[in-house]
Amino acid sequence: MARRALTIGALAIAVILLGALMFFRVPRWTTRATTRAAAAPSPSAPAPPGRKIKVRLFYVADDGVRLTSIERDIAYGEGAEEQAREIIAAQIAPVVDPLVSAIPPGTALRAVFLTEGGEAYVDLSRELMTAHPGGTLNELLTVYTIVNALTVNLPAVNTVQVLVDGKEVETLSGHVDLRAPLAKNLSWVQ
Amino acid sequence: MNVRRIPRFPSALAFLLAFAAALSSQTTPSASLTLLSKEGHRALPIAMVGDQEFVALDDLAVAFPLAVREDSLGAITVTYKGKTIVLTPDQALASVAGRLVSLPAAPARNGRRWLVPVEFISRALGLVYDAPLDLRKQSRLLVIGDVRVPRLTVRYEPLGAAGRLTIDATPRALSTVTQETDHLTIKYDADALDAANPPLPPPGGTNLVQSVRVVDATTLAVDLGPRFTGFRTTSQPVDATMRLVIDLVAPPETTPPAPAPVAPPPPELPPMFGQPGALHTIAIDPGHGGEDDGVRSASGAKEKELTLAIARRAKAAIEARLGLRVLLTRDDDRNVPIDERTAMANNNKADLFISLHANGSMRPTTMGAAIFCAAFDKEAAQTAGAAGLDRLPTFGGGSRDIELVPWDLAQTRHLDRSAAFADLLEQQFRGRLPLAARPVDRAPLRVLESANMPAVLIELGFLTNAEQAALLTGDAFQNTAVQAVFEAIVKFRDLLPPGGTP
Question: Are B185 and B177 a contacting pair, CB within 8 Å?
């Protein structure tokens, strides 16, 4: 009888432990899967449930000639590379007034890679070029939105190279040299 | 092809020398058509019937692997690798693989041989032959396949005491110009030169140029006159042609010229010659072009058209009033790769590079002109700064120390002067044109990085702002902008030592 009670007690503890594990771990997996499926939650939309992290995202300032940064809660990513994906996904997501994004509409995230040397490679879809309205200033703000989003928020990232459709590009619309990784530049931020 | 096979060198060169010598001798050209290919050369006799030049089909059959057959009805069938050309006596037509082409004359019989107009080669044989056939009637030359034989045309214009020699090479061929004691040598990167037009301007020579002559297969010489004191060259592609311009400099006239009723320049546009040597050449780069419109305004104005219009105005003003040479990286609606734009400035040793653009913003109210200089990260600047002297062999033996700077970092050595010119532009713009909040900035701009001279990119205003778009496309704004750029150049010239940019 005592042996039976011991067995029931052990089972009860196992169930409690499993329940606790489910309570703390499962929501995060679920949240991440949802975030990926949605691809790009709007920073101005209500934050999805799950573990969050505060980051600074960049948008076109009111004067139109600089970026302004805004603090947002975005999904937590396991490891720097996963977090970099979450940051870029949030950064390129469409926004509503009064925010104005320097990322052309329709641009999608293809991949983000980090190297041990602190270089991040951000691979975006072709809309980054084809839907780009042109102009040196627009191009600078587009490029430094992406570069600053990673270099400001992730200490593991020193420089960022933008790729389009998996390939290195010279410029987006004829101005800013994208053939090499670019370092953080806050002179384009108010 | 059955053209006589000869070793490419030196006998091929010997022929080319002879070819050039024949061209230079100014004698009546021998009545033959010269076939020129990678494999060698061959001369085909030309027979004149009236004014029309003919070649014998038998000769063509030997030069090319052709089979010629005459049937009982008189038709002549020429076969090349299974493709047939049918000629009919008395008809100025040929049926080429079933397609009719016209000839300037019907085939003619000369004894037992059939003669065909030389145009038969380009119009009929050219349609079925494996390699391109380029018939140049005027120079009696047939270029077969991929042989670089630019056709040269030479013009000379007196410009007061000075003079300008313009030599067009079509298709494009690069050249180098060097001075020897009493002549300039122009060496072309080509297999041979087609200089059948007498390259001899001007009749009787001038005080600056006595004659232009063919020296060898790929070289021209310009015999200089007694008043020649110096020269400068620029080269620029114009469609399929590479245009070489040699400006010949003479000392000032010692006797004052007779007063001529020359209209004085408008009072607001005084000529500003002076301090010769400080600035010679300015490269102006109209941004975008061709399929790349650049920024478009809501009303349809295109950045590529605006930049070209202002570049042309600037060129006219600077050349007329400062006497400087102005190169445009494009002078029509085409897209020039970024590296070609800076290469044109670098290769022509421009002293200043100005890239013209119009801006765009995601916010429709953003406005104002801005001037950009290049920006490099510290590592790149150090790489360029660390570029030492490399000892390289030179033509004719020996060696010399040459400073090698990576192409993409050429601008690093000129950043201070670029910034100085940007500040001058800002000063000239201020009060005349709407300026951006931060009118001078630095950015990693692709077109500036390789410029081996002071270089700036001017954003004249925002086409995404409707008010600015209307302003930018108007004459008043464009004239004001050109005047401001002009005055900044004058002030920049004053900053430079008389010898030019160091």
Answer: yes
